[in-house]
Structures are given as C-alpha cells and as structure tokens.
Design a protein that fits this description.
With about 150 residues, this protein is mostly beta strands. It is built from no helices and ten strands.
C-alpha cells in the first residue's frame, strides 16, 4: 500500500546524485506580493499572476516491493474565498525495487485574487480513479496590486 509521508512548499530542492539525499531550500509559510497590472484590464478579486518560483515536494512510501506501481498526484490551489484557482498533476512511479519515492512539482507563477490564506490541497489518485486528500498546506499571502492592498 502506498502512503503519503510528507509534503512541503519550498523555493527549491536539490537531490545529491552521489547519495540520493534531498535538500529543501527556503520552506514557505507566508509571502508578500506587489503585482503591477494594466489598470484598464484589471478587475478587483479576479486572478492575477504573481511571479513566484517554487516547488511542491512530497515523499511517498510503500510497505511491499516487488511490482511496479503508479499513482497520480494532484495539487489544487484554493484562494481565501474557497475558489479553486488551478490544478497541477504529476505521476509517481514506483519501480519493482523501490519502497519510497519523492515527487517534485515545479512552478514559476502563482494565481492570486486577494490577501489571506491560500491552501495547496494535495490529492492522490489510484487506478480506480478515487481521489484521496493527503494534506493541505496553508500559505499566508499579503497581496498589493498597483500599490493597493487587496
């Protein structure tokens, strides 16, 4: 059985090829964004893109080796009002000899609507296509658009 061990929101991760260890750099809990947009095209409480390089890094473990297994990881971003702003997916493939796997999903922007707590909801989908919530990672965001606090 495949189990979720942990997931973090980091600026980046580095994997050492010699010993297969991972270093997590700058784990995020809160951020400030000052976004500039065209005043004529901007509508308050609508999505704006904030430039933000980050990764969602997860570790999975299974108690039995011997056969290849695959799961789909889905990450939903939910804004402070409960609106889903986007989804990213990644496959996690266990080879016959692996009992643990790390997964890294890399992003270069984040969708924002207002200041408050955003939540990254991490799900696992197995072959029967059932979606299981593994964890929810909060990120507190202070958003300013064209100098105005949102």
């Amino acid at each position: 059985m495949i189990k979720h061990i942990w997931t973090v929101l980091a600026r980046e991760s580095k994997i050492d090829a010699d010993n297969n260890t991972i270093s997590l750099i700058d784990l995020y809990e809160n951020l400030q964004f000052d976004v500039r947009v065209d005043e004529k095209e901007y509508e308050k409480n609508k999505k704006v893109g904030g430039p933000f390089n980050f990764e969602i890094v997860s570790l999975f473990y299974r108690d039995t080796k011997g056969k290849a297994e695959k799961i789909l990881v889905e990450v939903d971003l939910v804004d402070p009002k409960g609106e889903k702003l986007g989804t990213a997916e990644a496959n996690v493939e266990f080879k016959e000899t692996h009992d643990r796997m790390r997964n890294r999903i890399k992003f270069t922007t984040i969708a924002l609507t207002t200041s408050g707590t955003y939540v990254f909801q991490v799900y696992m989908k197995k072959q029967e296509n059932k979606k299981e919530l593994l964890t929810a990672i909060p990120l507190d965001v202070a958003l300013t658009v064209n100098g105005k606090k949102m």
